[in-house]
Design brief:
About 15% of the residues lie in helices and about 35% in strands. By secondary structure, the protein is an alpha+beta fold. It is globular and about 45 Å long.
């Protein structure tokens, strides 16, 4: 079939259609650029440990499982665990966990009166070129998480020695009890200045992992002292007293002042 020649009006119509079609992509781009921008995605939620502070050695705080005591005394929990302690910021030591190495370490006087003094919250001591502070803490769990404690203060958590002290106020003389402890890693424990139990080598903190011989809690304040040595990774401890039938002693009053007593005197 022979094509018919197009008139001027048809030619103008065809040119207008072609021009309109050619302009569509440009129009779409302009519309998106001015009115159809996609919103920026929301930031992903933070995960992992808190970001380290920009200032070296500045506290990160707060420790998620620890809090400052809000009352003068605190009873042991329903399972008998002692949840209030004074803890000294960690000392840097060789991370050796054998019995011989730990015993030699804790018998060396890194700080003044390390085996006799009952410190107060905020007391400062000097160990070589280190200046360390005692902190009063309550734990929200059965155990005291020393990794949380040190990390919140921007202190080292590996190859360290922690000292911990608390005071149990017995309502009467309590013979035949035993101190039951667990620690990660090695630890040595004293009651009223007498060494009563130790755990050695790399280990997890297991409830009642170590149990002392039979002891006597004196009426009134009794000082419990512990030295915990950690080579690396997580570190924590737990402690409670067991009665003559090896059942947990519940409701013992814990305080941090050995010079006072919550137990009425006759």
């Amino acid at each position: 079939m022979t094509a018919r020649p197009q008139g001027p009006s048809m030619t103008r119509l065809r040119n207008a259609i072609v021009s309109a079609i050619g302009a569509l992509p440009f129009a779409a781009v302009v519309i998106v650029a001015t009115t159809g921008q996609q919103p920026s995605p929301a930031p992903a939620p933070a995960t992992g440990p808190p970001t380290a502070p920009s200032t070296p050695n500045a506290p990160r705080g707060p420790a998620p499982s620890l809090a400052r005591p809000a009352s003068p005394t605190k009873a042991s929990d329903r399972a008998g665990f002692l949840q209030r302690w004074l803890i000294l910021e960690p000392l840097k030591v060789p991370g050796q966990l054998t019995e011989g190495a730990v015993q030699a370490l804790v018998k060396k006087e890194h700080i003044p009166e390390s085996l006799t003094a009952v410190p107060k919250d905020g007391d400062v001591v000097h160990a070589g070129d280190e200046t360390l502070t005692w902190h009063a803490v309550d734990t929200t769990a059965y155990n005291v998480n020393l990794f949380h404690f040190a990390y919140a203060l921007s202190k080292p958590t590996s190859n360290v020695l922690f000292w911990a002290v608390t005071v149990v106020d017995a309502p009467r003389e309590m013979p035949g009890v035993r101190l039951a402890i667990g620690s990660n890693a090695a630890s040595v424990w004293w009651l009223n200045g007498q060494e009563v139990i130790g755990l050695y080598n790399d280990r997890q903190a297991v409830i009642d992992d170590g149990v002392s011989p039979r002891l006597t809690l004196r009426k009134g304040p009794n000082v419990i002292r512990a030295a915990i040595v950690n080579a690396g990774g997580a570190t924590d401890f737990c402690a409670r007293f067991l009665d003559g039938h090896d059942a947990p002693i519940v409701g013992l009053i814990v305080r941090l002042d050995a010079g006072a007593s919550a137990t009425p005197r006759p």
